Amino acid sequence: MRLLHTSTLKLEDFIGVRYRPPYAILSHTWGDDEFLFEEAQNRIPQDLGNPKRGLRKVLDACKRARGDGLDYIWIDTCCIDKSSSAELSEAINSMFKWYMESTNCYVFMEDVTFEMDGTMRNFVTSRWFTRGWTLQELIAPHGLLFFDRDWKYMCSRDEIAPTLEKITHITPSILERSHISPVSDLGRVFRCVGCGHVDAVKEMLRTESISNKMRWAANRVTTRPEDASYSLLGLFDINMPLLYGEGENAFWRLQEEILHKYPDQSILTWTDRSKGDTSRPYFTKTPASFLFRVSQSVNGMIERGGIIATSRGLEIDVMVGPCAFCRKKLQPAILTEKLFMAVLNCAVEKSPLTRVAIFVRPLTPGAPDTAYIRVYNDRLIQLQPGAPPLVLEGGLEETIRELNDMTVEYNPQRLSQRRILLAPVNAADHYIKTQPIVQLNAPGIEKVTGHSKHLQMRDEPMIPYKRSSFGSGDKGFSTLNLSLAIYLGNGNSGFFVLYGVPSLSEDGDLMAWVETWRSFFQEDPSSDNLRDLQWNTFDKGLRKYLSNHARESTVFATEISEPDFKAKVGTKTFEFLVT
């Protein structure tokens, strides 16, 4: 560990805890003119009249540490040689430990002003609360002190724990840790000499569910996408090689490493509206998907073997049974073996009798066995005794909302305890084996044949929520909640083709038989030959056309039936001219 001497302003190396002196540590947000390691290798001049902001921050932090009787301080901008990948990897994997073992942690909030009346102006909206790295810097230290833009002391973490809980959602007992005087060299990690308090932050974190800890990081951002994962290593007590450039794969690796150490099924209580493909659909791409507050299980303990990451996928011990996701109706739905619910071993926080469940579908349609894929990724089920299931949906604004018009019907007697496999394949990869060729015939264009290998399938069926009307009179028609909307043309004229037309059921609800597709094209939509596609203007263009033309071309509707596959397919096309 490399420390900066607060008086001589020289960098010094210390190997091992035994020979390392007490030190302060700085928590802050980076700016454009930080004082870096390359500059700190030369002795820092102390008589600068007007140093740049980054250096000014370092000098003020050293001054504060000296005032607290500390000869050394660690600052990430100048104490890490980031040109060395080995040193950077060691520092990131050790950072939580370094913050935890510090005597004092100074939080410098450059955008906060401490007023004469004690008001901390802009504190709640400070940028410091939005950065990924500052999460562990808030949690790990035993003594944490907040300073404003002029280095005026504002408060300690324990003094404003209720406010911090509202901002960060972190469990209060973790935020209330404090001490009266600096900790000793020998026992500073475990016990405060001044107040005798045992700082068991790692033990506290182990009792928190994976989902809750991810939720703390949900609204935080990092400059590099990989750092959204690397900044959580200490929070989960994980050591992992750093591979900058791997992108979202870093978060998948992190989730796998977490499960190897903590087999907690709450890692599946995420909701994600993204339709991107992944070879591991049981994992999500970002901490922002964790919005639901859950505990590990009824007794707060993790059952070893409840969830295991293997090369075949995730093996989980759950209660599983058929269900129906439908609108609230008077008559019960017919339960088939197409859609199942898997009840996880975790409860809604502070409601130990509740359970959280996810939607799953057999890997082989119509033949449920031990292999499943997760579907309806943006929804969870909350089960509670004596009450109907609640369908919870992840919102666009980092919130969970209840779908009041939808419900899940199931028979508790058909739920059985078993070990199932969440398979590491995307739904499209499987259905390609059974999906037939689709032909679209439309007036004015040649026959279009699209084989399923050219299509990207979403891993859930479509369920419409509402109907509206385009146009008026005989020009109007009910909104078709489409399985596919494609544009065929050169950007100046062409056709919108609507694939998978739903029909009206007896009770007036729209029903769809076909799977939902994302694209009809083999090429990436961003490629040059498809750059004229206006996916975001489909609704606007269709409205404009129907307001000017009464003509409507209905193509065909047929029923396709093959082994392991049944679907009703309908298409409609509307000529669309750009004017």
UniProtKB/TrEMBL annotation:
PANTHER family xref list: HET DOMAIN-CONTAINING PROTEIN
Lineage: Eukaryota, Fungi, Dikarya, Ascomycota, Pezizomycotina
Identification of the protein by name: Uncharacterized protein
Domain Heterokaryon incompatibility, chain residue ranges per copy: 23-111
A Pfam family: DUF8212
Record domain DUF8212: where: 249-279
Annotated organism of origin: Fusarium duplospermum
Signal peptide: none
